[in-house]
Amino acid sequence: MNDLLSRRLALFDKPEHLDLLRHCRHGLEKESLRVAPSGQLALTPHPQTLGSALTHPQITTDYSEALLEFITAAEEDPEQTLAELDTIHRYAYSQLGDEILWCQSMPSKLPDEADIPIAEYGSSHTGQIKHVYRKGLAVRYGKAMQCIAGIHYNFSLPDALWPLLQKAAGDTRPAQDYQSASYIALVRNFRRYSWLLMYLFGASPAVCKGFLKGRLHDLDTLDENTLYLPWATSLRMSDFGYQNNAQASIQPCYDGLESYLDSLREAVSTPYPPYVAIGTRQHGEWVQLNTNVLQIENEYYSTIRPKRVACPGERPIQALGSRGVQYVEVRCLDIDPFLPLGIDITTSRFLDTFLLYCALEDSPVMPGEECRECTDNFGHTVKEGRRPGLTLHQNGTPRELVEWGIALIECMAPCAAILDAAHGGTLHRDALEAQRAKLHNPELTPSARVLRSLSKDHLSFFEFAMKQSRMHAEAFRARPLDNATHQAFEQSARDSLERQAQIETEQTGPFADYVARYMAAIDPDYNTCC
């Protein structure tokens, strides 16, 4: 344990300081494809009984009409967060008829690209900008890639913790600047160590053969319908999942918040010739919001994002720039097909420990060499993380993955201990030990369990995912909501539809002018005539 981590941990020897750790907040965003009973992608519209995808606080869509996204509030107790996610699932299943939710991050059998429905958000300018943005994603990346699903874990340390750390450090910056710098330091350490999350929680080592139709790849053939890599942990997070040549040019600087924002401002303001050739409109219809490397900042496929809740009409860059970092969004988690919710409390407890360690551990700025090294470590782990003896690199020095992972577990143990001291019990230590067991025995990892199920039961990826999806669907449908909770969801759905109608009534002016104003907030040179 380094001196800085020891000093920071010592601050929690005081009961009033230790109590702060009970007030971390946890939120979840979980994506799931709707599929027909046959397992084919559902081509039905987003059910109106689930409310408006534009305005509903808990149920929306991501890329496609069929890609549901469930959103919880940020709660201090992660068990309450998971309970809310469970409740949303149970209500959704009461409205889906015979459709079910796909239990895997990698998609089910997809129709031709032209037939994958892009999400609709109504006729308001706000709704149209979301729809056109998704049309741009189709142009840039293809529709199939946008059907990949995952889980986002939103985490914040209590606001009152930062003044404590700042005073102990003798830091005289404005409080907002210190908090933002500290969250960016957390992000740097996350970049250093997030390969470990992919080893422990990656759950997508295989994919339907049709997903890579027409694309070059070096995946192995498991059966006539399944491609895989024998040591892979997460094909979703590999270059077979989220990839784009334009984004390869983006190298966000995590030296501080402003340098990070400058990186994104440049990406949303710099034309990319292939997109320029397409233009923003074809035959009078919008096909993308602009012709830059990124249409908007959220298009950047990062494994973690510093975040701030934005005000209506405010862009994420503006919110961060004006009020600083409020929380982080971990974006690299696969859906675990063995868990009904795709995530469980043990995973959550470990993530809390991991993120607290990233926040308290020393986090020097990252030179370009280390950034590339971190990217390489992550890439090797998602494609061959369970390979015996796999070697990563730490500051240029080779380090065996399992040995390094066990060492990190040891380093995190004091963080688990203070979390347990704050909450009572041993839940964080137990979560840490569950992950240590996976490092000693890779067969316990979700990715290994998926491949073992395919092999043992002679199932294709599709057949395995259908089996698990049906089992989870039956479990949710067997636990209908009580009448009061069900009625509350119905009212929330009606309220969201009324809010969407109100927004559509209130809009004024041409859509092109609205887009121009939205883009000019970041890119003053935006050209409405592209």
UniProtKB/TrEMBL annotation:
Keywords attached to this entry: ATP-binding, Glutathione biosynthesis, Ligase, Nucleotide-binding
Enzyme Commission number(s) from the entry: 6.3.2.2
Annotated metabolic or biological route of this protein: Sulfur metabolism; glutathione biosynthesis; glutathione from L-cysteine and L-glutamate: step 1/2
BP term (GO), one: glutathione biosynthetic process
Catalyzed chemical reaction(s): L-cysteine + L-glutamate + ATP = gamma-L-glutamyl-L-cysteine + ADP + phosphate + H(+)
Gene Ontology, cellular component aspect: cytosol
Any one Gene Ontology molecular-function term assigned to this protein's record: ATP binding
Annotated Pfam families: Glu_cys_ligase
Domain Glutamate--cysteine ligase, chain residue ranges per copy: 10-378
Enzyme class: ligase
Family, as annotated: Belongs to the glutamate--cysteine ligase type 1 family. Type 1 subfamily.
Protein name as annotated: Glutamate--cysteine ligase
Organism: Parazoarcus communis
Lineage summary: Bacteria, Pseudomonadati, Pseudomonadota, Betaproteobacteria, Rhodocyclales
